[in-house]
């Protein structure tokens, strides 16, 4: 068992850390207050290749492995969760979905521009009335000759107003006995007539990102834009979440690290009763707890990344990693505020933003309650992963880097 | 008998740099240890007045290398002149003021003479005929003693403001010797100069007023209407903040410095940066405005004789090195301080 | 253009450096490419992008200095060479300049050498000039801008940041250029560069490889390294009802201390 990161991994870590620290950290507070995404973020991430990090070179990506994706997420979220959210929806949910399930033609048409960062991807599953219960979506797709007519509204969609390509889940058959059976996945082009969208403001956290709604009214989508088979959509949606959750979990690791760094620095600086507060055991306890959860969360996520590299099914491990890391990141942020006292409560320091951002992670991409049920299901033998028609390809450095 | 202590006089625009006289005074302090007089070396064109001045600061003799081809300092040409002189005289010690010219000059002379160089020295002691020089490393986070035990001369460049600045004494006398120099053609050519970006030179300044990222945080300012982008607004705000820093600097006759954060954010040119990747300074008074005191910044200014910090965060590390601190809004404090000092200085 | 860039590995500038048992310690802070050298690498890359050619990064140091060379490779230099030999231990700049000059002479037909202005650990800032002198080439130090470079004409025109302002100097190739911050904005390593760097076999040149049969002994020794005396400053906080009251009090205190 080798716990070392490769020199490749370390160099990527440093590169992404430099980008986030030098370019985003100095302005993040301002954009968070404005509740808008800094306009340079997506173009710079594209330019640096981050938007195609773990896609083979022949599909426009950088040919790095899934561990690298996790490390990128950790570094990005250590500065702000909105940066990692980009990786979750663009890479984890959209790019990897097309990479896993798309036809060769679809990969050429859709994945290449996404991996190059020329286009931005998003994922449209959640609807105004459907969150944890996605089998009950009501968005529809009706086949008319060689086109699907899409109708419906998606809600809480990250990058809703930025994305060019959205994995869209809609019903191709009416709800029957088993509701998830009639769902189909589509690659929706947001420039098509009938697509409208907007951002949602007033969120608790991830304010420097874009979260919104997308509405389709009689949008005519060519048949070639269907991802997978008719009726396969629910399985696809769940399989995509195995990757999205991995990015969320890995990002939460970075958030915990940021909480530790902020707390340690503040506790060494701030004096009370004549000494640095870091000398008080109740402060030490908080920091020790953060350190404990950081290490555990990190290992769980690296394990999930390793399994992806090996091409192993990782639904269980990824769910566990996401659940543990996001819960721990919220706890760490809350304790980091406590370490900072009243200052932590103001946006003078970063930790209140960390708390607001961490709160989202325990809701989206499967709330902690859903992850709890998944884990209970595995433990009690009530749940089993049936094989997929197309598993996510494992990492093959030679193949992935051909054409570089 | 030739003197064993040589000191180089660096000059620019017809005037010696103040640090050159500090080097002369350091050379004079070695006279007993080496039982020798001090020879100053002035190289240039029409530099007779500087040679006279060197005598008034304590040089017992002055070698003047006067040649039209030495008009503009070029390290290669100056090196050849100095190396010839060193080979003729074989001194024990060759001190230089540490400037942007002499660092390179000393480096090259050392190569030609196959001897050691101690750049940017802040203190000297003589032990058994060798100078034990103290110089900062890791941007002043540590100090090291350096010794050039065998090779001669021992070449040192001395940091500005680290050694005593002597008062000139016109009653002193010394011999001025026109050195017979052959000067090779320069391999590089100075085409001209551009205005200094830093105003008063940071390394020579007795007082420095510095601004950090905090100078852009004045929310009460509304940027002029034709700046629409956020970065533009931020820089505009910062420039207004630096105006306050500049006004205080002007009243004090001080140089203006900045933190790396302010330079990296594009508020002010790099020439103003104080710190590990900027200039290392040691003024009598350093006023830090809106600077939190990152370790890299402290490395560049912690040896200042007195530090005053103005910052709105009472826990900022800068207060740990400050003699006087004001926790407050620099946008209110700076104008008031400028007025208060104007009054006292009769300006 | 055949370009050489000389780089060094140094502890991250954010590190807390201490002396332990007479040796410098930077705790678990990472060793990185000397920040000044990033500007040198970037300038080499910009030069290559404009004029074509090949960039060789050379580092003199222990085996683990390879990491700095890897960063240079990841940023885009074509080749990297580590110059390392137990005989080089304790080298001062006099020795280092000799070794580097020998290494550069082994690289074919070099037109241009870039250095960073100094290393953030030793803070010497003399190596570029010394290597230039050893090679008999002109040295352009403290370069803040390259205004003009003509490989055909064999000329270069630069702006140097000297204490008094900016000086414009023209020189001829081959030349040693040492650069300051502000000359460019160093790029981040690219993914492709990172992959290339992590797989690169970095050749190691020893004293024998460089034809240095006898390594000269250094002229300088460092008998003692120590932390500066901690000056215990107790900050006197100036307080008052209004900014004017505070300013008046502070001005009075500064006058009393005779620093103005």
Beta-strand segment tally of chain C = 15
Q: Any idea how many domains of chain B?
A: 2
Major interchain interface with per-chain residue totals: B-C, 100 and 83 residues
Mean pLDDT of chain B: 92
Structural class of chain B: alpha/beta
The total tally of domains of chain C equals 1
* N-to-C series of helices and strands of chain C: EEEEEHEHEHEHEEEEHEEEH
Spatial strand sequence of the major β-sheet of chain C: 11-10-9-12-8-1-6-7-13
CATH architecture of the largest domain in chain B: 3-Layer(aba) Sandwich
| Beta-strand proportion of chain C | 25-35%
Q: For the record, what is the CATH homologous superfamily label of chain C?
A: HUPs
Characterize the main sheet of chain B.
Answer: 7 strands, parallel
Q: Helical amount among residues of chain C, as a percent range?
A: 25-40%
* Span between termini of chain C: 54 Å
Q: Do you know the CATH topology of chain C?
A: Rossmann fold
Largest sheet of chain C: 9 strands, mixed
Name the beta content range of chain B.
25-35%
Portion of residues in helices of chain B? Answer: 25-40%
């Amino acid at each position: 068992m080798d716990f070392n990161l490769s020199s490749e991994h370390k160099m990527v870590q440093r590169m992404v850390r430099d980008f986030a620290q030098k370019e985003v950290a100095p302005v993040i507070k301002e954009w968070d207050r404005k509740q808008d995404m800094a306009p340079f973020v997506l173009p710079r991430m594209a330019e640096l290749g981050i938007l195609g990090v773990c896609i083979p070179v022949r599909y426009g990506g950088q040919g790095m492995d899934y561990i690298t994706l996790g490390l990128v997420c950790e570094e990005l979220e250590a500065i702000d969760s909105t940066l990692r959210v980009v990786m979750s929806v663009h890479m984890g949910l959209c790019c990897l979905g097309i990479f896993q399930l798309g036809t060769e033609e679809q990969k050429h048409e859709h994945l290449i521009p996404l991996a190059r960062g020329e286009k931005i991807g998003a994922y449209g599953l959640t609807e105004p009335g459907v969150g944890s219960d996605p089998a009950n979506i009501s968005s529809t797709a009706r086949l008319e000759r060689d086109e699907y007519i899409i109708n419906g509204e998606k809600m809480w969609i990250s990058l809703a107003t930025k994305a060019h390509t959205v994995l869209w889940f809609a019903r191709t058959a009416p709800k029957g006995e088993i509701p998830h059976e009639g769902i189909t996945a589509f690659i929706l082009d947001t420039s098509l007539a009938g697509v409208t969208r907007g951002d949602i403001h007033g969120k608790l956290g991830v304010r420097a990102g874009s979260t919104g709604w997308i509405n389709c009214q009689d949008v005519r989508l060519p048949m070639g834009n269907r991802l997978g088979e008719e009726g396969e959509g629910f399985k696809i949606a769940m399989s995509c979440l195995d990757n999205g959750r991995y990015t969320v979990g890995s990002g939460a690791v970075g958030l915990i690290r940021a909480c530790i760094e902020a707390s340690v620095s503040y506790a060494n600086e701030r004096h009370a009763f004549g000494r640095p507060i870091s000398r008080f055991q109740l402060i030490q306890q908080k920091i020790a707890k953060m350190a404990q959860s950081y290490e555990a969360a990190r290992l769980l996520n690296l394990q999930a990344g390793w399994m992806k590299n090996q091409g192993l099914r990782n639904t269980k491990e990824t769910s566990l990693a996401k659940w543990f890391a996001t819960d721990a990141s919220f706890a760490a942020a809350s304790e980091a505020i406590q370490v900072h006292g009243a200052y932590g409560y103001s946006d003078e320091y970063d930790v209140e933003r960390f708390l607001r951002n961490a709160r989202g992670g325990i809701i989206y991409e499967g709330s902690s309650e859903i992850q709890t049920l998944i884990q209970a299901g595995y433990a009690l033998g009530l749940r089993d992963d049936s094989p997929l028609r197309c598993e996510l390809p494992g990492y093959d450095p030679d193949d992935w880097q051909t054409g570089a | 008998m030739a003197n064993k202590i040589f000191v180089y006089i660096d000059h620019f625009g017809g005037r010696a740099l103040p640090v050159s006289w500090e080097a002369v005074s350091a050379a004079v302090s070695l006279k007993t240890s080496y039982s020798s007089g001090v020879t100053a070396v002035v190289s240039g064109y029409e530099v007779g007045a500087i040679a006279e001045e060197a005598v008034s600061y304590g040089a017992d003799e002055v070698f003047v290398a006067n040649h039209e081809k030495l008009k503009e300092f070029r390290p290669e040409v100056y090196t050849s002149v100095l190396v010839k002189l060193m080979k003729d005289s074989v001194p024990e010690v060759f001190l230089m003021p540490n400037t942007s010219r002499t660092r390179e000059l000393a480096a090259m002379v050392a190569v030609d003479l196959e001897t050691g160089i101690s750049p940017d020295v802040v203190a000297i002691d003589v032990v058994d005929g060798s100078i034990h020089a103290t110089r900062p490393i890791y941007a002043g986070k540590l100090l090291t003693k350096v010794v050039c035990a065998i090779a001669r001369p021992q070449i040192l460049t001395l940091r500005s403001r680290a050694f005593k600045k002597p008062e000139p004494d016109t009653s002193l006398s010394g011999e001025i010797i026109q050195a017979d120099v052959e000067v090779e053609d320069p391999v590089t050519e100075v085409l001209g100069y551009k205005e200094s970006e830093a105003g008063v030179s940071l390394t020579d300044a007795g007082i420095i007023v510095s601004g950090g990222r905090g100078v852009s945080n004045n929310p009460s300012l509304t940027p002029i209407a034709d700046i629409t982008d956020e970065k533009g607004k931020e820089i505009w705000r910062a420039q207004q903040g630096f105006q306050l820093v500049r006004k205080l600097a002007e009243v004090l006759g001080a140089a203006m410095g900045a933190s790396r954060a302010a330079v990296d954010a594009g508020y002010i040119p790099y020439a103003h940066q104080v710190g590990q990747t900027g200039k290392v300074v040691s003024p009598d008074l350093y006023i830090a405005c809106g600077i939190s005191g990152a370790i890299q910044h402290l490395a560049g200014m912690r040896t200042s004789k007195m530090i005053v910090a103005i910052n709105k965060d009472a826990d900022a590390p800068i207060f740990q090195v400050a003699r006087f601190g004001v926790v407050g809004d620099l946008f209110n404090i700076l104008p008031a301080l400028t007025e208060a000092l104007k009054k006292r200085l009769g300006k | 253009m055949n370009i050489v860039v000389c780089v060094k590995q140094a502890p991250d500038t954010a590190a807390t450096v201490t002396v332990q048992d007479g040796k410098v310690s930077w705790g678990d802070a990472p060793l990185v490419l000397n920040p000044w050298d990033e500007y040198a690498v970037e300038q080499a890359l910009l030069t290559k992008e404009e004029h074509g050619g090949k960039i060789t990064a050379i580092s003199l140091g222990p085996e683990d200095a390879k990491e700095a060379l890897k960063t240079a490779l990841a940023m885009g230099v074509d080749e990297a060479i580590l110059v390392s030999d137990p005989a080089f231990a304790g080298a001062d700049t006099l020795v280092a300049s000799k070794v580097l000059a020998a290494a550069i002479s082994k690289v074919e037909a070099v037109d241009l050498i870039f250095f960073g202005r100094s290393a953030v650990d030793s803070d010497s800032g003399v190596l570029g000039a010394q290597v230039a002198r050893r090679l008999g080439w002109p040295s352009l130090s403290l370069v803040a801008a390259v205004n003009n470079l003509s490989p055909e004409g064999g000329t270069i025109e630069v702006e140097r940041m000297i204490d008094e302002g900016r000086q414009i100097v023209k020189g001829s190739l081959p030349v040693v250029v040492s650069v300051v911050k502000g000359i460019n904005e160093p790029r981040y390593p690219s993914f492709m560069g990172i992959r290339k760097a992590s797989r690169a076999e970095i050749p190691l040149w020893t004293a024998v490889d460089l034809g240095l049969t006898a390594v000269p002994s250094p002229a300088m020794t460092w008998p003692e390294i120590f932390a500066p005396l901690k000056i215990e400053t107790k900050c006197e906080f100036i307080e008052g009802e209004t900014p004017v009251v505070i300013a008046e009090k502070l001005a009075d205190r500064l006058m009393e201390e005779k620093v103005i």
